[in-house]
Each structure stands twice: as structure tokens, then as C-alpha cells.
Amino acid sequence: MSIKNSKKIKVVLGSIPIKGKPTVIFEKSIVNFFNELSINIKKNKRSMEYSDLMTFGFWCRKANIIKLSENYLEKNFMLGRGNVLHIAPSNVPMNFAYSFAFGMLSGNCNIVRLPSKNFKQVEILCQIISKICKKSKFKKILNKFCFIRYDKSNEISSDLSRDVDARLIWGGDETIRQFKMYKTPPRCVDLSFSDRYSISVIKTSKLAKLTDDEIKKFVRKFYNDSYLMDQQGCSSPQAIIWICDHKKEIINKFWNILHDIVKLNYEKDLSITNKKISLIAKSAIKTNINFKTEFKDIRIVRLKTNNITPEIEKMQCHFGTFTEINIKKINDIKKLVSRKFQTVTYFGFKNTELEKIIFKNGITGIDRIVPIGRAHDIGPIWDGYDIIYTLARIVSS
To answer: What residues have CB less than 8 Å from 279, skipping those under 6 apart?
Structure first.
């Protein structure tokens, strides 16, 4: 592929144009490359400062990738589509790494636009990959990808889109709309990951049965789902739906424990406080939802409402702000869900109960149902897409 505006693109790692060719999915040298990457991430002292980078290092180990491959190999003869363009979001540091991995494991060559913000963990990972690619057994890997940065430019984005076989667009709705305007080859496949909304559903009677140690561990998991990305990840819960079949004292206990965790781990920041107040004001203006604001520490703000409506998706809750709704039956969830819903993290019942509600009512939202603590566990099936399957082509015979 040729890029007219290549001089305006900063190449962080690799080169444009990419010289590699597509291979079969889960090609051995690619699997070994990611295993080497896993080993190097885990032994890098700087990596240890970033939990999301360490999580990726654990995810890309050989044992996990071989386990993933079992869902694809021996079913069909599959190889990569060709060149894939990845547009990473600006607010999630390690998203680009998973997107890159999916592109490589599906046998493709990959152009990855890195996050616009200068995250340290992105810098560390690029340095580790660069070091690995200098080894003789991995030198050819460098022909299969390129990490780039460039200032927002319709000209460059259009240029990059003109000659690719697939695009993974992780930006928000506006980014997706913009990229859909660019011309692509007729057989180019797009996977668009739009703005989404996620919730936690908790059954109070089951929560009340936990010991003090158990509930502390549980609330810590909720904290990780919510605060590690400032609720800006698409799978971070922005609302808590309480299935209230027990005395509400347990809810107060939950918030008190969360407050203790937040006080120790989440620093006060005036700029974040200002953003939070602005978002709450917008929620009041943009929705018809009546809510009561409650907090004893600005780092945890509860927006309590009795309105069971899909409009809750318009209440943008970030930086430790949570819409809070009490319902009596799990089936009432169907009254809340819209197309925008992505992940439901849950506690106190089986995931099959939620699955039945989705299937029975033909709900168009909710693509993931996972226990609380696993909101950010990313895999090749995301937003209802099988990414590896979609990025590969099947050669029938």
C-alpha cells in the first residue's frame, strides 16, 4: 500500500508501507512472539507500575493464546484478510495492544494508530516490542506491523483507509461517523466499537450473606471495575441496579466500604471534580430523569432515582459517579436496556437468568454478562463481534 502523506505520519515502530503478507491464523512464530512479549513484560521493572500493562502481559502468554486458538483451528482453513487499520481510543492506554494482538493472531499485517495521549505504559510496551524484534528469530515480525501517530487529519485518515482490507475503529461515535465517510475498498470489513453504556446488577440478599472479609474483597473488585479507568472504559459500570430483596442497610455498608477504599487509593483532583460537576449538570439538563444527588466525599457521588427508563444511558457517570436504582425483580432490567448497553457485571444470581431475559424479550442491547471484578477482561469476542473470526477469511474446498 502507498501512503501519499507518509511524511506527516510519525512512525513509532515498524515502517510504512508494510512489507509483510497475510498468514494462517495463530501462526506459530506469531504465537511465540507474543509469548516472548509476555515474558519480557512480566520481568520489566517499569511494567510493574501499571496493572493494565501487567494484565496484558499475562493475557498474551502462550498458554492463553493456545487456549484461544482451540475455538478456531481445525474448523476451517483460515488466513488473514491482508492489511488492517486500527484506530485506538485516546482514553484507554492498553486497548491498542489487544487490538494489535487480535490483528496479528488472525494472520494480518497491521497499522496501529496509538492513543493520542502520551501514556507511560504505551511507551514501555513499544520499547519492549522494539527490543524483541531485534532478535534474529523475530526480525521478520517487524514487517507485519507499524505503530504510528499523527495529528487529527481527514487527509491522512482517508489515505490510510483507501487501501486496507479491514478497519478496527475503537474511537467514539463521532470518530466512527468520520471514518465511515472515507472511501475503502469494496471488500474492506469494518468493526466499529462505538460509545457504550454498562451497569452493575447486585442482589442485596446475597450480598448480606457475605462475611466482612468477603464483602471487602467484593467491593474491591467493584472499585477495580469502576475507578481504574475513571469509568471511561466502555465496560466500566456507570450505574448500579440493586435487586432489593433485603434490608437496605447492606447497601449503606457497601458504600461505606467503597469510601474507605477510595480514600486510600483515589486522590482528590480539582480538575476531575470540575468535570464531575459539569457531567452531573448535563445529566440534569439532557434527561427527564428526576434524581437526588448524595455524597459525603466528592470522590463518590450517588445519583439516586426511581425512574426505570432507558434514558439512564444519557446520564454520563465518570470519575466516581454512579446512577443508583432500586428494583424488586431482575426481570425489570428489560425496562432499562437500550442498544447502547454493552456490559452487565453481576453479583448474587446466575448469568443464565440475565441471558433468559435478553433472549425472551429480544433485547437489542447487552453484549457481555460477567461477574463483578471482570468488567475489563477483554477477549476476541467483544461488543458482540468475534474479532479474530471476522478479521480472517475462510478458504473453502
So the answer is: 316, 317, 318, 319, 321
Four-residue CA torsion sign, 292, 296, 298, 302 = negative
The residue ranges of every structural domain in the chain are 6-195, 197-371
Alpha carbons 62 and 66: distance in angstroms, whole number? 6
The string of pLDDT tens digits covering residues 154-201 is 999 999 999 999 999 997 899 999 999 999 999 999 999 999 999 999
| Dist CA 397 CA 386 (whole Å) | 23
Q: Return the CATH number of the domain spanning residue range 6-195.
A: 3.40.605.10
3-state DSSP helix/strand/coil % of the chain, to nearest 5:
45, 20, 35
Rounded Cα distance, 36 and 287, in Å:
50
Q: In the chain, which ranges are continuous DSSP H helix? A: 28-43, 51-59, 62-69, 95-105, 120-133, 154-161, 173-180, 204-207, 212-227, 249-265, 270-286, 351-361, 387-391
Cα 149 from chain centre:
20
Q: What is the pLDDT of residues 9-62, one digit of tens each?
A: 999 999 888 889 999 999 999 999 999 999 999 999 999 999 999 999 999 999
The CATH number of the structural domain formed by 197-371 is 3.40.309.10
316 close to 279: Cβ distance less than 8 angstroms: yes
Three-state SS at 342: strand
Neighbours of 126 (CB within 10 A): 16
In angstroms, what CA-CA distances link 63 with 38, 55, 69? 11, 14, 10
Q: Each residue of 224-276: pLDDT tens digit?
A: 999 999 998 899 999 999 998 767 899 999 999 999 999 999 998 999 999 99
Q: Which residues touch 386 (CB under 8 Å, ≥6 apart)?
A: 380
Question: Reduced to 3 states, what is the DSSP secondary structure of residue 157?
Answer: helix
Cα Rg of the chain (Å, integer): 22
What is the SS3 assignment for 212?
Answer: helix
SS3 at position 16 = coil
